[in-house]
Design a protein that fits this description.
The protein is of the alpha+beta class and 353 residues long. It contains 14 helices and 7 strands. Strands 1, 2, 3, 4, 5, 6 and 7 form a 7-stranded mixed beta sheet that branches. The protein starts with a helix and ends with a helix. It binds iron/sulfur cluster (SF4).
Length: 353
């Protein structure tokens, strides 16, 4: 394999085809002497974990408008950050975002460390994110391996070992491709190639700058790579969500415990989520009525089906769980997606009452 030639061809392609991304300093700007802002690189990398570029753009704009640097984010109110994150999912990321921003300010004078090893000591920064920040923001020769890079590498080297066992092999191969010069641009070029040319279903090999080096293409198996072990089917869990509205329009909401699924997020009080019919767990004594329909949502490890019960709660209700959020302070957009679905179902039911 001609690693150097591959790297050269990839960077030449990146120089004219790099995606314009709001957190990116493109090759032309780099040549003009602009440097990436580690804060923006870090924020984008955390947001992009498990999420697409299209989904992240608006969130990134809102976050950087409200909190333009790490010091501003470190001082932010936890509830406001969780509310801005609502809908992006994997909420532990938002909690760690705050912890990390505060650690950068408290322990590093408000500047992100520049090496992968030092970045790894920060809350919520794992090997992938540390390598990405070090390579992209600091031009450290770190190898950055996300799903796109795994796919490109598996095809380029015709690796037939299935994922996840293939991960160490793919990382080692990707490391062989990582150049000493422009490692940040190389990492972003690999990601861009995977996102725009070497796509999961229909790789555009005809216009790929790496086609002449690609063993997967040469042997006609590129589209089948990377191979993957069969996934276990996800179990289904069931639960009840309680949408209570006080006579003055205030909504009965509950902040979920810091640890666990949707940790720290606002939501409707509810039962446990179990694989058998859940026991009712109303948050206040009232005439709760089950409404027609159900909410379906899929988390990483299970499907969830929620039935929804609603009640009008009298003034003076003293709930056993949760607290009332006044009508004009309530924004459905502050809720995580599954809780927003509950809100939407309950709202439709009220409208058709
Ligand atoms: S030639 Fe095809 S399979 Fe190989 S890297 Fe390019 S797009 Fe991917």
């Amino acid at each position: 394999m001609r690693e150097k030639e591959i790297g050269t061809a990839l960077l030449a392609w990146y120089d004219s085809h790099a995606r314009a991304l709001p957190w990116r300093i493109g090759p032309a700007e780099r040549r003009a002497g602009h440097r990436p802002d580690p804060y923006r690189v870090w924020l984008s990398e955390v947001m992009l974990q498990q999420t697409t570029v299209a989904a992240v753009r608006d969130y990134f704009h809102r976050f950087t408008s409200r909190w333009p640097d790490v010091a501003a984010l470190a001082e932010a109110d936890d509830g406001e950050v969780m509310a801005e994150w609502a809908g992006l999912g994997y909420y532990a990321r938002a909690r760690n975002l705050l912890k990390c921003a505060r650690a950068v300010v408290a322990d590093h004078d408000g500047r992100f460390p520049e090496t992968s090893a030092a970045l790894l000591t920060l809350p919520g920064i794992g090997p992938y994110t540390a390598a990405a920040i070090a390579a992209i923001a600091c031009d450290e020769p770190e190898t950055v391996v996300d799903g796109n890079v795994e796919r490109v590498t598996a095809r380029l080297f015709a690796v037939e070992t299935p994922l996840p066992p293939a991960k160490p092999e793919l990382t080692a191969l990707a490391r062989r491709l990582t150049p000493e010069t422009r490692p940040g641009d190389h990492a972003q070029a690999m990601m861009d190639l995977g996102a725009t040319i070497c796509t999961p279903r229909n790789p555009a090999c005809g216009i790929c700058p790496l086609r002449s080096f690609c063993a997967g293409h040469a042997s006609g198996i590129a589209t089948d790579l990377p191979r993957k072990l069969a996934k276990k089917p996800k179990p289904t869990r069931f639960g009840i969500a309680y949408v209570g509205t006080r006579e003055d329009g205030a909504a009965l909401l509950e902040r979920r415990p810091e640890r666990g699924l949707l940790g720290g997020m606002l939501g409707w009080p509810g039962s446990d989520w179990a694989e058998t019919a859940p026991a009712p767990a109303p948050p206040a004594a009232a005439d709760w009525q089950e409404i027609a329909g159900e909410v379906r949502h899929t988390f990483t490890h299970f499907h969830l089906i929620l039935t929804v019960r609603t009640a009008r709660l009298p003034e003076g209700t003293n709930p056993e769980r949760g607290h009332f959020v006044p009508r004009d302070a309530f924004r459905a957009a502050d809720l995580p997606t599954v809780m927003r679905k509950v809100h939407d179902l309950a709202s439709r039911a009220f409208l058709t009452d």
